[in-house]
């Protein structure tokens, strides 16, 4: 098969491992409005950080003004062409470029994830946006450190802390 030599070359030239957030940005499967709309977690594909009608990984990487500071550091390391194909090619060239891409991905995607969690937690969030509150969520909440006093379960019982 033709794909096997390409994967071997990728593995040979890689300067580390991809992080979870880098994989999200490079694949487009993450906290991007277009993807969230596609999977039914958002009502529209618009960007929450600028007035753009479609929030994609490419929009986040190249044009969203919210990430201009992080992008300037990335451009200094990998050059002006921020197409996904060019970014992947540049990150394979050196350890410095690899780290610059990973740093951009970690900084930007983590901020996008935090903003998404805030929207999910908002009381006025549409039902489609709200985080589900099932058994696993209740168990997780019980394990979280106390920040504002005793936690309660979804049924209103005290968590006993």
Write the layout of secondary structure elements.
Blueprint (H helix, E strand, L loop, with lengths): L2 H11 L6 H8 L5 H6 L18 H6 L5 H11 L5 H8 L3 H27 L13 H9 L18
Helix pairs in contact: 2-7, 5-7
Protein name: Reverse transcriptase
Organism: Loxostege sticticalis (Beet webworm moth)
Overview of the structural elements:
This is Reverse transcriptase. It comes from Loxostege sticticalis (Beet webworm moth). By secondary structure, the protein is mainly alpha-helical. The chain has one domain (12-142). It is built from 8 helices and no strands. It has helices at residues 3-13, 20-27, 33-38, 57-62, 68-78, 84-91, 95-121, 135-143. α2 packs across α7 and α5 runs antiparallel to α7 (95-121). The longest helix has 27 residues, at 95-121.
Residue-averaged pLDDT, rounded?
80
How far apart are the termini? 58 Å
Oligomer: single chain
Into which percentage range does the β-strand content fall?
A: under 5%
- Count of separate structural domains: 1
3D shape: globular
Compute the number of helices: 8
Evaluate the radius of gyration.
Answer: 19 Å
Biggest sheet overview: none
Q: Tally the beta strands.
A: 0
Order of helices and strands: HHHHHHHH
Note poorly predicted spans.
151-155
Helix coverage percent: 40-55%
Task: Give the structural class.
Answer: mainly alpha
Organism: Loxostege sticticalis (Beet webworm moth)
Protein name: Reverse transcriptase
């Amino acid at each position: 098969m033709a794909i096997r030599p390409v994967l071997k070359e990728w593995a040979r030239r890689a300067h580390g491992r991809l992080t979870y957030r880098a994989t999200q940005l490079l694949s487009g499967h993450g906290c991007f409005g277009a993807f969230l709309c596609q999977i039914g977690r958002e009502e529209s594909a618009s960007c929450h950080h600028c007035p753009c009608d479609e929030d994609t990984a490419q929009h986040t990487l190249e044009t969203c003004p919210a990430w201009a500071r992080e992008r300037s550091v990335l451009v200094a390391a990998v050059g002006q062409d921020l197409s996904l194909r060019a970014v992947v090619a540049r990150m394979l060239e050196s350890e410095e470029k690899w780290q610059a891409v990973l740093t951009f991905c970690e900084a930007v995607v983590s901020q996008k994830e935090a903003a998404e969690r805030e929207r999910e937690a908002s009381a006025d969030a549409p039902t489609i946006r709200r985080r589900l509150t099932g058994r696993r969520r209740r168990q997780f909440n019980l394990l979280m450190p106390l920040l504002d006093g005793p936690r309660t379960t979804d049924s209103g019982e005290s968590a006993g802390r």
